[in-house]
Amino acid sequence: MSTTTHDTPSPADVARLIDHTLLKPEATRADVAALVDEAVALGTYSVCVSPSMLPLAVPAGSDLKVAVVAGFPSGKHTSAVKAAEAAGAVAQGADEVDMVIDVGAARAGAYDAVEADIAAVRAAVPGTVLKVIIESAALSDEAIVAVCQAAVSAGADFVKTSTGFHPSGGATEHAVALMARTVDGRLGVKASGGVRTLDDARRMIAAGATRLGVSGSRALLEDGRPDSSY
């Protein structure tokens, strides 16, 4: 892969921040096996899949991580269901969990409820990297800040912009920057949804993203061509 200046992440640098993602409901086990092979070949940080796809066969000697979603994509599951889903996934080998908050609760200003929801999942998977999907495109700036603060208080490891499935849209530089300022280095920030080109990825990183959710990783890393799969 090509190299770039020290100020601009190279494709290899970007790859190391990518959760190579396949969350389509029609995905098969064969599709996920191909995802794992592609992730290893591309040098991505992890794969992100549905919990029903576990356990995954990761090639021996690979340091590829396995992330799964919980309460996906609506976030309207009870906290007990999200916690059980997360714990079950970790028991089957997941290294990281990306949970969806109750976006309606956030929109209503019920931030204590959002914090309790995150805390329930945190308690179910101690020691596991926990990312909190806030669906930033559906929230006001005030709500984004409050939900990020709730994630910090509840002991999460990352805040994440989007599921990639919400009609309001995916990641924006504005949301990523606001999230990064709010967590102020205490949590990582994952930009997900609509990150389709190398330029997109670099803009998100410049805005403060420390992880990227991408499904069209090969197209992004090879030449930044738009990919319509996410």
UniProtKB/TrEMBL annotation:
It comes from the Bacteria. One of its GO terms (cellular component) is cytoplasm. The active site is at D98, K160, K190. One of its GO terms (molecular function) is deoxyribose-phosphate aldolase activity. It is found in: Cytoplasm. Catalyzes a reversible aldol reaction between acetaldehyde and D-glyceraldehyde 3-phosphate to generate 2-deoxy-D-ribose 5-phosphate. HAMAP family: DeoC_type1 (MF_00114). This is Deoxyribose-phosphate aldolase.
